[in-house]
Amino acid sequence: MANNDDTAKDNADEVELQNDGPDESQAQPKRTEQFPSLKGTEEGREQEVEQRSADGSDGTRFEKKFIVDKGAENSEPQHEANRANVLEDAIQRGLHPRGEVRFDGAEDITREPAEPGRRFFPLVELTYSVETIPAAVDTQPAETTTPRDQIESDDGSTSTPTDKPAAGATRRAEAAKAEKSATAKTSSRTSSATAKSSTSKTSTKSTAAAKPATTKKE
């Protein structure tokens, strides 16, 4: 009876050891299925961007389409709002945009009225795209173009996005300018403090030299 108990205990130990920890040989393929970019190939990146794009993609360019009333394609505020929305959607889908959003064109679409006899309003489909990097393999996430970057770069003019500097470059230029300004202020304060100290010492010496000698009474 004792031998049977020992055998059962050994079998239980073996089962416990076999179930200890996940099977990494199976976990890795599942991870690359979820994040194809981890394969380290351009094809893997394109595959992941395509999987995360609701409206399609072109290579690693994330695409998004908007259906609006006819004539809205001529409205710059409409384009500004759509560009910011494209960036927001891409980030929420696990992609990091690079550069500015590009307007790829407008296409008239036809939709039948919801009810017979109702007035038909002409519509247009606007398509935008932006270069992206899957977040899983992005080694420079600070270079991500955010909706705020896009809004700040949009100045309300009729110039196209390609005429404007990339948001990442703008941020770097602003950071360098701020650092230069801070250095100049520090240098100015140091020089002012040094000059003040020197003036104070000179004044003290002059006062001491001008002080009359005390006559000793006999």
Automatic annotation (TrEMBL):
Domain of life: Bacteria
Annotated segments matching region Disordered: 1-118, 132-218
Residue stretches of biased makeup (Low complexity): 183-218
Entry coiled-coil feature ranges: none
Biased composition (Basic and acidic residues): 1-12, 40-82, 97-118, 171-182
Compositionally biased region (Acidic residues): 13-23
Protein name, per record: Uncharacterized protein
Species the sequence originates in: Lentzea guizhouensis
